[in-house]
Design goal:
The structure is a single chain. With about 230 residues, the chain is an alpha+beta fold. About 40% of the residues lie in helices and about 30% in strands. It has a six-stranded antiparallel beta sheet, with no helix packed on it. It has a two-stranded antiparallel sheet with strand order 1-2. A two-stranded antiparallel sheet has the order 4-5. Helix 1 runs antiparallel to helix 2.
């Protein structure tokens, strides 16, 4: 993959490739697709690719994890000193509140995805390659082999798309040359599936599990309050 971008501070244009470790893996590509390129100010050669143009994360993952460990430790101390109901209240209470806060947005996102699946169009595609990667665990020497099919398809507006295809193709090892049907989003061919109905069932099932999970942790928090 060859990518061109312009440094806004100097106006200089750079043409680079995705060889080596260069940020996020770009799993779907076609000529003219826009992707994100991030780099430190004044150091365009230290670029990193991103699937979206938006800025990356703020690097607070480890800080948030450390804060969670501190909070979990305080809850554990309270449960030991004051009794098990504090464990239910301390852990399930914030979890339930967070779930209730995010649940409407999650449902909207899932409904939007289901509507998106309904609007997808179907075109013929083909498996043109099967990439094989082998990794060896440095601790026990165990070998892990991963097979990734590569598919191509042409959209209705003549964009020729090449993409990694996640699990969903039977007999992956022998799938090279296989003809199949690709369902893609007309607005963004990077969003494609092989089986629309299976994907729709998966999203509906995920929505139900999300709702049930929030109800369970909320019930556990209520039990903790009652038992105090």
């Amino acid at each position: 993959m060859v990518v061109s971008f312009q440094d806004p501070s100097t106006g200089q244009e750079f043409t680079v490739t995705n060889e080596g470790e260069r940020g996020e893996r770009i799993s779907v590509a076609w000529t003219g697709r826009e992707i994100g390129v991030h780099y430190p100010r004044g150091r365009p050669h230290a670029f990193r690719f991103a699937n979206h143009l938006s800025e990356g994360g703020r690097g607070l993952g480890w800080a948030n994890f450390a804060l969670f460990l501190v909070y979990a430790g305080l809850v554990a101390v309270a449960a030991i000193d004051l009794g098990w109901p504090w464990a239910l209240l301390g852990l399930c209470g914030p979890w339930a509140l967070s779930g209730l806060y995010h649940l409407p947005g999650n449902i909207r996102d899932r409904n939007r995805r289901i509507d998106q699946l309904a609007a997808m169009v179907a075109v013929p595609g083909r498996v043109v390659a099967v990439l094989k990667s082998v990794t060896v665990d440095s601790n026990d020497g165990h070998t892990l082999t991963n097979l990734m099919p590569v598919v191509t398809f042409t959209t209705l507006d003549s964009r020729e798309v090449t993409a990694y295809c996640e699990p969903g193709i039977p007999d992956t090892a022998g799938s090279r040359g296989l003809d199949l049907t690709i369902h893609y989003d007309p607005d963004d061919p990077a969003l494609f599936v092989l089986d629309v109905e299976a994907e729709r069932r998966s999203w509906k099932r995920d929505m139900a599990v999300n709702v049930v999970g929030v109800l369970v942790v909320a019930a556990a928090a209520v039990v903790g309050v009652i038992a105090l």
